[in-house]
């Protein structure tokens, strides 16, 4: 090939160098892209909130509704130090028993019924006590008449003594008769009040606002008072009631975790049947004695604002939060 032609095809050395300004522009572009990528990747507090258009207009939010993380509670912002399971229980379960042996005449509630404080729930047969009341009323009337007669006799004897007709002994005898009549009257009044009390005990009322957990008897069934310290027989209680708005979680806590628990410690409660639901709670009781055979200690967590999703005797998960 012609050497002159080859020389024409060669690139001059000054044309081979890349301009310095182009390198700086490329580097600056790479830096800007990197900073934008970091800014987008770093999470921010606003990312926990989402704003959606509902298509509704309003005077304050112009149709925008803020959607937050569901189930988050005020107490749920702390760090969880321990998670255990337990059972939901009523704070107080009351079994209403009769005060004496009797027969159920009427029962006006069934399992699941709501009751109010003072509501009549059971009537016992009161025929015997009504008869006793009439008997005592008769004795009471007779005692009042005896007192009246003794009072008149005493007044007559006193007048006769003033006229020097009767002796002082007659006056003393009349005074003693009057005092004896008054004592009998007082005894009759006590018997009257006692029988009225027995009669009132045939009307059984609910001691609290709550729900009937169990109906333990039926009409015409014989019931007896519950024996102190003994096991409950089949007919020693009439109904069992509890306040469903006063619930706790009962936990058997392993002794190695006891150092993580303290009274009034905040908790988050979730029923196993509805784990997406969370309720605020706090430690209300730490048993003073452990179970040696199990190596556990009983803990009770009070639930704030329970609702229909919390059913007694079902299990629940409890998260203890760092104080």
Could you tell me the CATH topology label of one domain: Elongation Factor Tu (Ef-tu), domain 3
Which structural category fits the helices and strands?
alpha+beta
| Strand adjacency order, main sheet | 3-12-15-14-13-16
Q: Which architecture of one domain does the CATH hierarchy give at level 2?
A: Beta Barrel
What is the makeup of the main sheet? 6 strands, antiparallel, barrel
- Considering the protein shown, what is the CATH homologous superfamily of one domain? Efflux pump adaptor protein, beta barrel domain
Note down, in words, how this protein is organized.
Helices cover 32% and strands 27% of the residues. Strand 13 (266-271) and strand 14 (279-286) form a beta hairpin. The protein has 323 residues and is of the alpha+beta class. It has helices at 3-9, 13-16, 20-41, 127-162, 168-200, and strands at 50-53, 64-67, 80-90, 93-96, 102-107, 114-115, 120-124, 203-205, 210-215, 222-223, 239-242, 247-254, 266-271, 279-286, 296-303, 315-321. The strands form 4 sheets. It has a 6-stranded antiparallel β-barrel. The chain has a 4-stranded antiparallel beta sheet with strand order 4-11-9-6, with no helix packed on it. Strands 8-7-5-10 form a 4-stranded antiparallel beta sheet, with no helix packed on it. The longest helix is centred in the middle third of the chain and has 36 residues, at 127-162. It is elongated, with a radius of gyration of 44 Å.
